[in-house]
Write a structure and sequence with these properties.
The complex is a heterodimer of chains A (145) and B (669). Helix content of chain A is 24%, strand content 42%. Chain A is an alpha+beta fold and 145 residues long. Chain A folds into two domains: 36 residues; 103 residues, Beta Barrel (Lipocalin). In chain A, strands 1-2-3-4-5-6-7-8 form an eight-stranded antiparallel beta barrel. Chain B has three domains: 123 residues, 2-Layer Sandwich (Alpha-Beta Plaits), CATH 3.30.70.80; 358 residues, 3-Layer(aba) Sandwich (Rossmann fold), CATH 3.40.50; 107 residues, Immunoglobulin-like, CATH 2.60.40. Chain B is built from 17 helices and 27 strands. The longest helix of chain B has 22 residues. Chain B is globular, with a radius of gyration of 26 Å. The N and C termini of chain B lie far apart (80 Å). The chains are: A alpha+beta (145), B alpha/beta (669).
Chain lengths: 145, 669
């Protein structure tokens, strides 16, 4: 009986230990998950892309001017976007649609059903002021407005 | 030495003998070179003479001995314009009045023998390019409910629904085969972009414009100095008395429009350009504003009066007046009979047209800046109504826009000239539209009309009428050009005049794809194949023109693959039918384009880009950007010039951005 009790007490301690460990692990995982979700929402202006000039570095007299506004949906991993672009033309063309962030991969669709020309790998600077989108070797750098 | 040379020059001057004409064949040849036309259709009481310098008293004396009773400057001197008049030689043109009974050919030969005389012209009379038909408007307001009408038409003008040239809904009551969209695509321009600008002035060089027409009066150009000045006095000192809304160069006085033999042609053209919009009255004008006193302005330069044609003197004075008094565009629905001239040189120096002074005046207008957008004036002409396979001069001059016509079926109108020199197409209407003799007048062009000329009509509304012709197509393009200037001014954009004209001509829709088979009209059949690639760059599109003025998007090319780029944004949807200029590719099917070495490096091009079948072939190998220069001809397969009638060269720089991907809808992401 005592043994049994001992056993029972041992089981109880073991159970408590497991529960504690599990709680710790869950807490740790949750904290880790919160750390890994990037908050890329906000208004971003294209300031550079490697090899092709933008804004400051125009293409002859044709300037590229791109502003991307990302708005979160129910979570930080999906939402809607508004895109204003001037690529040579005299006034901005506007697009909108939805975006999804899977870990560090950003993809999306325009509201007319057209998918983006590519998905992008996302890198957010430590101070959250610079968003770098990389695709097929091309690098697009956006600054937060 | 100096003294001897001076004496020699003096002697030469003294030798300005009227007897030189009789001294041999070489001299005779020189004289015939100086006399640029014949007296066949000219005034026998006046001669036009261009001197190398201001004629001396001795010369004037010699002229008087030969029966010249008056010598006066052709263009009244205008304060502040002296330097420019001298630049184009306008200050050296004189009108000689002959004593009655003198033989005008004889006097011309003797005047030509004077060494200081550069050119002698007989003062030829022009023929008014009247519309073959003119009909009253019999319909009243549209049957549409006010709500529906407001949805379809941006303005409340009750007869706008009959102006298919602006908004063509494909109404079969106008024509069985009325073509939806066969119009100038103006609706969205009016609704969203621009409706006019009072500082943009279009001179209508034509019959007099009825300046007090209720649908035109608010958009008439007004010379305030004359309006507020003394009647009978040249208050602004421009050489013309009481020129409040323009001037009657034919009768040298008050503008007229309702005389017995007048046709209402000038008033009709003016209405298409800038009848007042959104005033709950009558019709709309292309650049007529939105009813807030914001339309472009019309200046009346009258060169026909009571069916008397303007002479070279009259036409030239009218063109110079338009330049001096602020016009940015001259809308010219007149010209010579088709085929009179077959090259720019024959036009200028031809022996049946007194064109030298008119040519000088056009050059003067083209060099006159009257707005903040372009650096010169823009002449726009009708291509002619003789169904000839070439445009008529002066519109056929290779650097001047010449307009051909289509009907409500969006097919060539039976009367329209086509072929070399015809740069673009616009609505001109068509009477013999049906194969059966039951013509709907609605197939013609509706615009403003002087009610005085419609007194015999039984209809209630005599202020409006239907006409047809390239004369009606021309003011559609003039109005769009005016809107383009207004829009560029609003955006703060500037262009060279040649670039602005190129943008206008490349703002065209495909017109050739429907030119197959025949078109059956009353007692005539058109073989549409004859018109293929003969209608300039296509049909004018006002909305595309405004987009071109805003700026053209870069073309996004994909790196690492061969591709054919659509250049219709730059050259219109008729780009496949244009003739491109440059070195041909080895197979003879394509034409290489120009690109700088820096741009070639940036895009990583390993072969030259070229145009074939209206598309740009390019193969970028890396992320980069560059500009490709493409040259094409608007109006024919050769550029017009001294040797032949032809089109106008257009050059567009196509901006290319090469990326490794692109979305199908043009979005950046």
């Amino acid at each position: 009986m005592k043994w049994n009790f001992f056993i029972e007490r041992a089981s109880l301690w073991r159970g408590m230990l497991c529960l504690t460990l599990a709680l710790c692990l869950m807490t740790s995982c949750h904290e880790k998950e919160e750390e890994e979700v990037l908050d890329i929402t906000g208004s971003w202006t294209l300031v550079d892309l490697y090899e092709v000039g933008t804004r400051a570095v125009s293409i002859g007299s044709y300037e590229i001017d791109v502003t991307l506004v990302l708005t979160a949906g129910t979570t930080l991993t999906e939402g809607t976007f508004d895109l204003s672009q001037t690529v040579g033309e005299g006034r901005a063309r506007n697009f909108s649609g939805t975006w999804t962030l899977a870990e560090t991969t950003l993809s999306g669709n325009y509201s007319d059903g057209t998918s983006w020309g590519s998905s992008y790998e996302v890198l957010l600077s430590d101070d959250k002021s610079q968003l770098t989108l990389t695709s097929k070797g091309e690098v697009y750098v956006y600054k937060k407005q | 030495m100096f003294s001897l040379l001076s004496v020699s020059l003096s002697l030469t001057s003294c030798n300005d003998s009227l007897n030189e004409a009789n001294t041999g064949g070489t001299i005779s040849h020189l004289l015939s070179e100086k006399i640029v036309n014949t007296s066949e259709f000219a005034s026998n009481s006046t001669l036009l003479v261009k001197f190398s310098s201001t004629p001396s008293d001795d010369i004037e004396l010699q002229l008087k001995e030969e029966g010249v009773v008056g010598v006066e400057k052709l263009f009244p001197p205008m304060s502040g314009k002296e330097e420019k008049e001298a630049q184009f030689g306008l200050n050296r043109w004189y009108v000689l009045s002959l004593a009655s009974g003198r033989d005008v050919d004889d006097v011309a030969a003797k005047v030509a023998s004077i060494s200081s005389v550069e050119a002698v012209e007989f003062d030829e009379e022009y023929v008014n390019a009247k519309s073959e038909f003119c009909f009253p408007v019999e319909k009243d307001e549209s049957d549409m409910s006010p709500v529906t009408r407001a949805m379809v038409y941006p303005y409340n003008d009750p007869l706008l629904y009959l102006q298919w040239g602006y908004i063509n809904l494909g109404d079969v009551s106008y024509a069985d085969d009325c073509y939806k969209g066969g119009d100038i695509n103006i609706k969205d321009v009016w609704s969203n972009l621009i409706t006019g600008d009072p500082e943009i002035i279009v001179a209508v060089i034509d019959e007099g414009v009825k300046y007090n027409h209720p649908d035109l009066a608010p958009n008439m150009w007004v010379n305030e100095k004359e309006r507020l000045g003394e009647p009978g006095v040249d208050d602004d000192g421009n050489g013309y008395v009481d020129d409040v809304f323009g001037y009657n160069f034919m009768s040298e006085g008050e503008i007229t429009w309702g005389r017995e033999e007048d046709s209402g042609h000038g008033t009709h053209c003016a209405g298409t350009i800038a009848a007042v919009n959104n005033n709950n009255l009558g019709v709309c004008g292309v650049a007529g504003g939105s009813g807030k006193n914001d339309g472009c302005r019309i200046m009346s330069c009258q060169i026909f009066d009571n069916n008397t044609g303007g002479t070279s003197t009259v036409v030239s004075r009218a063109i110079k007046y338009a330049a001096d008094m602020g016009a940015s565009i001259i809308s010219c629905s007149f010209g010579y009979k088709g085929g009179t001239y077959k090259s720019d040189l024959s036009y200028r120096k031809g022996n049946r047209g007194s064109n030298q002074v008119e040519y000088d005046a056009l050059a003067y207008f083209e060099a006159t800046k009257n707005n903040s957008v372009v650096d010169g004036g823009i002449p726009i002409f009708a291509s002619g109504n003789d169904a000839d396979p070439y445009a008529t001069y002066p519109g056929a001059l290779h650097n001047i826009i010449s307009v051909s016509a289509f009907g409500p079926d969006y097919l060539p109108a039976y009367y329209s000239n086509y072929g070399p020199g015809c740069n673009i197409v616009a609505p001109g209407g068509e009477y013999y539209h049906k194969a059966q003799k039951n013509y709907p007048v609605e197939a013609l062009i509706l615009s403003t009309y002087p009610s005085e000329l419609g007194e015999s009509w039984t209809t209630r509304n005599r202020d409006y009428a239907y006409m047809q012709g390239t004369s009606m197509a021309c003011p559609h393009v003039s109005g769009i050009a005016a809107l383009g200037l207004a829009y560029a001014k609003k955006l703060g954009k500037t262009f060279s005049t040649s670039k602005f004209k190129e943008l206008l001509l490349s703002s065209a829709n495909d017109f050739d794809s429907r030119l197959m088979g025949t078109k059956e009209l009353y007692q005539r059949t058109l073989n549409l194949g004859n018109y293929r690639k003969q209608m300039g760059t296509g049909s004018i599109d006002a909305y595309i023109f405004m987009m071109q003025i805003e700026g053209i998007p870069c073309l996004i090319a994909e790196t690492g693959r061969n591709q054919w780029m659509d250049v219709s944004q730059y050259f219109g949807t008729s780009s496949v039918n244009l003739t491109y200029l440059g070195e041909t590719t080895p197979d003879g099917k394509g034409v290489y384009c120009e690109i700088s070495e820096a741009d070639r490096q940036s895009l990583g091009l390993q072969e030259e880009p070229y145009m074939m079948y209206g598309k740009l072939y390019i193969h970028p190998t890396k992320l980069g950007s560059g500009k490709v220069k493409i040259r094409a001809i608007a109006g024919g397969s050769i550029i017009g010039g001294d040797d032949a009638i032809g089109g106008m060269e257009m050059t567009q720089e196509v901006a290319i951005v090469s990326r490794s991907f692109k979305s199908k809808n043009g979005g950046w992401l």
